[in-house]
């Protein structure tokens, strides 16, 4: 398969990953991630769900600073999956804001503040660059570790069946 | 320097759009050291199109100074990461404007000659008009930050979009002779689970068997 075909036909893996993260972040206050630590995570400002492809594609977007997720819950109940969402991720006091799409691209990444007001910021551009690369690396590691957790469950038929049942229960509760 | 598309400046300030790649063949070999990387970056450095009629130029610049292409190692080697900028200069003449000026030029020439122009003469007028318009068109500049983690065989492009990705992938291939693979979920999963396991995965219905 060429890359374009893979991106089209295996897109559901990224969508199920995002749907799974939404579920995890909604039901668990602190997510333990192997080799990373304990994360706080939540959906903020934007979530897009979709079903179908090509001209059959149907999309629902919930956007806004005070986001109302009721439409997103309804879309999930109709069988749509998350194709893009903005998350707030906190690890060890550092908070990133990032939009992740179903190709797991990291978009509009807002970096954590590493200094309090009154404290000294990195002065030179080289220092700023180094700090931002380190913070971006940390975020990439977090997302990769989350994906590794997901794919290990996803590839195990029994574990995934249990997870899907839990997600269906979550939908039952959220859609009431 | 423009910064709208998440380019070089976004590595230093503002929000970042990131495209991640795996290097297809890991080139972390003793032969490919910092001197080699410096030489390759210098060989494919950005060339200005200010004094030419070229429509586009793509090449490497230093991350912290997009006007510099010296690439002394202390400038691009940050610990385990090499950083560089991909500078893209373009100039464009709109089709509408081009057609308008071609029509005017041909009408003037036909009036002067007192006869319709031949196909060759029309072609020659078109080339002349195109060169004149390109000469006057302003050059648009974008710079996209790039980080290369050689040990991890991973490359980041601080930018998104098909055209930007294509330009970057072509420049990378030309410079280092290796391909890049977009780090999409399927590609990442191949490193984490068996190929058989991955191929067995088919879409899940989260609502199957449920009544709401």
Provide an overview of this structure.
- The complex is a heterodimer of chains A (176) and B (212).
- Helix content of chain A is 45%, strand content 27%.
- Chain A is of the alpha+beta class.
- In chain A, strands 1, 2, 3, 4, 5 and 6 form a 6-stranded antiparallel β-sheet that branches.
- The mean pLDDT of chain A is 88.
- Chain B has 212 residues and is of the alpha+beta class.
- Chain B is built from 8 helices and 7 strands.
- In chain B, a hairpin with a 4-residue loop joins strand 5 and strand 6 (154-157).
- In chain B, helix 4 packs across helix 5.
Considering the chains and any ligands shown, give keywords for the structure:
heterodimer, A: 176 residues, alpha+beta, six-stranded antiparallel sheet, 5 helices, 6 strands, 27% strand, B: 212 residues, seven-stranded antiparallel sheet, 39% helix, disordered N terminus
